[in-house]
Amino acid sequence: MSGYLFLLLGALAAVKPAVVPAPAAAAADKKKGAVESDRAAIEGIVKPFFAAVLAGEYSKAMEGLTDVFAIDEGKRGYLADQMATLEKKLGRAVQYERLGQRSLKGSRRMVTVYYVTYHPLKPAVWELVFYKPPASATAPERWYITSLRFESEKPGEMVEGIEP
């Protein structure tokens, strides 16, 4: 009997327990996946916009935002004109990159994302505020732009305290 008990204890010692992720770790993984998905969705909006900006096609850049940026055509034209003025002052942008973001405390539905465009004379910083309303019977859950602005005179002030 004691030999049998010894074999049983030895067999139990050789069995390794399965690692079960803690609920907090699983929640963190889910949140990380959602954040990455949100970032990819926002980049899907921003990438064609900045491609048009780099090409000097400012009206096209603004037209590309029609479905996600609810401003009237006059304001859309005004922003396109301001981008053309920026090009006259600084030269055409040759590259852009994401600087970081700021989120509304405790919310994943509103985020401000910052980009920089590099021009021959100096950079310009862009601020785009995105909002994702809850899905409804008439509208899917997706990101919309609520504000867009750019600054070349004091761009550092726009990006203080952002998260990468």
What does this structure look like?
This protein has 164 residues and is an alpha+beta fold. The protein has one domain: Roll (Nuclear Transport Factor 2, Chain: A). Helix content is 45%, strand content 21%. It has 5 helices and 4 strands; from the N terminus they run ααααββββα. A 4-stranded antiparallel β-sheet has the order 1-2-3-4. A hairpin with a 6-residue loop joins β1 (95-103) and β2. The termini are far apart. Residues 2-13 have low confidence and may be disordered.
Biggest sheet, open or closed, and with what strands and sense?
4 strands, antiparallel
What portion of residues belong to β-strands? Answer: 15-25%
CATH architecture: Roll
In round numbers, the mean pLDDT is 82
Count of alpha/pi helices: 5
- Contiguous low-pLDDT stretches (5 residues minimum) are 2-13
Structural class: alpha+beta
Give the helix level as a range of percent.
40-55%
Helix and strand string, N-terminal first?
A: HHHHEEEEH
Query: Span from first to last CA?
Result: 64 Å
Number of domains: 1
CATH topology: Nuclear Transport Factor 2, Chain: A
**Adjacency order of strands in the biggest sheet:** 1-2-3-4
- The geometry reads as globular
Q: How many strands?
A: 4
CATH class: Alpha Beta
Radius of gyration: 25 Å
